[in-house]
Amino acid sequence: MKKSDFDYDLPKELIAQHPIDKRDDSRLMLIDSKTGEIAHSHFHNIVDYLNKGDCLILNDTRVLPARLYGIKEGTGAKVEFLLLNQIEKDIWEVITGPGKRAKTGAKFSFGDGELKAEITNVLKDGNRIAKLSYNGNLFSILDKIGQMPLPHYINEELKDRERYQTVFSKELGSAAAPTAGLHFTNELLNKIREKGIGIGFVTLHVGLGTFRPVKAENIEDHKMHSEHYWIPQKTAALINKAKAANKRVVAVGTTCCRTLESAMEKLGEINEHEDFTDIFIYPGFEFKCIDALITNFHLPQSTLIMLVSAFCGYDNTMKAYETAVDKQYRFFSFGDSMFIS
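The chain above was modelled as a monomer; its predicted structure follows.
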């Protein structure tokens, strides 16, 4: 298939620039992957579409406030850093802007000197390796001086940065939020538990590769980015119990989907383990773990809409997106969601 097969027309005004007042008041599109039938609801009703004995799997990663604004030592020139991957304790892969100011040996200061960085290497893709220096705890400093790395399509300032975190976020390390999880409130999660639906957590640290466009015209030629994940024993047991009882495994978001399908592809079963995944899911993929998917509406020609098309069916997916535009759903990170069963 070609990447252009996954294009669609989206009016700019449908790109959600801010979260709605109450997380679970977002709209919910219901799609039957077998028939293509579409219905409309709101997310606080998701409990009505889950069955007793199902298990709901959520990604508990937490977004780092990893966007930093500082100056180049010696010249005072302004610079922007985005921390991507922690390679060692104080060694990070970063994106810098402007790149020409971040040559090997260049030094930078952030937050009135609370955090400093020296470029030690320039990578082939233009990213940099930086050695950080500071006094105290790095993550406390980032909480103080860092900003949320919101996607490029969001232009409004985020007034409450906890709205770009899920209510169950715990494990620091993501460069972006697992946005399908943003719709849940603690009250809604309690209602789901009370109905007899198991809730389990995996951790996949979302990389910015999520937002990188597919450049290859033939999608099979696209090389996926790699992300770290962990499946705890408690979650593995919950999934295996649901499978044994012929109940559904409901993945919340493409990150959970990729985590569980990666494990099944590698091990043939779900058990406690951690690894890196660069799995690329597109139409023709055979799903071995998940039975239903909760997800947001994704960018045209992205690997995420390709994953949804693999699970829901290409024609069903493109029809759903056309319907979402027609019904003026809100799109992308702070937008509405769909439940595909």
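The first strand starts at residue 27 and ends at 31.
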